[in-house]
Amino acid sequence: MGHRALLAYRRDDISCRNDTDHRDDTDSSDSADAGTDTEPNSDPTFDLHRSHWGGASFGLARRISAETPFASDTSFGVTPDPVATDLSLAEIVAERLDFLHHEAFFRVGDDYETTPFHVLWFGLETDSDRVERSETVGHGALLEARPWGVEPQPNAGDDYLRGWFRGTKAAVGEMVDHGAVTPEEATDYLSARVESWGDDREVILPE
After folding, report:
1. What is the per-residue pLDDT for 32?
2. What is the pLDDT of residue 80?
3. How far is CA 129 from the centre of its chain?
4. Sheet holding 114-121, edge to edge
5. On the CB side of 64, how many CA atoms lie within 13 Å of its CA?
6. What pLDDT was estimated at residue 57?
7. Reduced to 3 DSSP states, what percent helix, strand and coil does the chain have, rounded to the nearest 5?
8. Of 7, 114, 116, which is closest to residue 65 (Cα–Cα)?
């Protein structure tokens, strides 16, 4: 099954990209002018890339650089051809990121500084008898990860996070089954709990 990861590379002057057709493979609309804006954009946009094994231990956070922008010298390298281009981070999180099937997310700056994120899915169908199906795209939270070897210094809580989150979802599922909260309220509750757990870490939620 792999350790699938999604990566958002900031578009500003990324000179090491392959000279490839950057059209969205799921959208046939004209994108010939993508990346040629003459006016500065206060909201950065990103090119979206995949890695089949990049979610393993957040190893890509230590391997992406100006010299190796796609970590092609590793066994968990990034596919150079983007799956979509010129997207805002909000669009990626709300419309592109599958919170169930992606194990990790990485935001890559124009200086190749890479920030890894845990991908936390809010789906409750395995935790609640009253929830038959949950959306997977745009339904969850990104929480900044601090794996070993990546600055700032790692927190032992990273090893604890996934167990904590599974337990929290199980408790929320029981609340839904007992009618204490609706599935919509459960999503709001999970969002608040992740933000609280994250404390000084960056948390990104779909808008």
Report:
1. 39
2. 97
3. 28
4. 84-87, 46-51, 5-10, 104-108, 114-121, 140-144, 203-204
5. 32
6. 87
7. 25, 20, 55
8. 114
Question: Tokens 């996934």 map to which residue?
Answer: 162
Query: Coil, strand, or helix at residue 107?
Result: strand
Q: Is 168 helix (H, G, I), strand (E, B) or coil?
A: helix
Provide the pLDDT for residue 42.
Answer: 65
CB under 8 Å to 168, separation ≥6 — which residues?
A: 190, 193
Residue carrying structure tokens 């909201």: 43
Predicted local distance difference test score (pLDDT) of residue 15:
42
Contacts of 206 (CB under 8 A, 6+ apart): 90, 93, 94, 138, 139, 140
- Which of helix, strand or coil describes residue 59? helix
Q: By three-state DSSP, how is residue 79 classified?
A: coil
Domain range annotation of the chain: 5-13+45-201
Per the structure block, which two tokens stand in for 13? 């002057």
Run of H or E including 87: strand 84-87
Closest CA to 102 of 92, 114, 110: 92
Cα–Cα dist 27/178, whole Å: 43
The string of pLDDT tens digits covering residues 13-45 is 444 444 333 344 444 344 334 444 444 456 899
Low-confidence stretches of the chain (pLDDT < 50) are 13-40
Residue with tokens 């795209």: 137
Provide the 3-class DSSP secondary structure of residue 68. Answer: coil
- pLDDT at site 1: 58
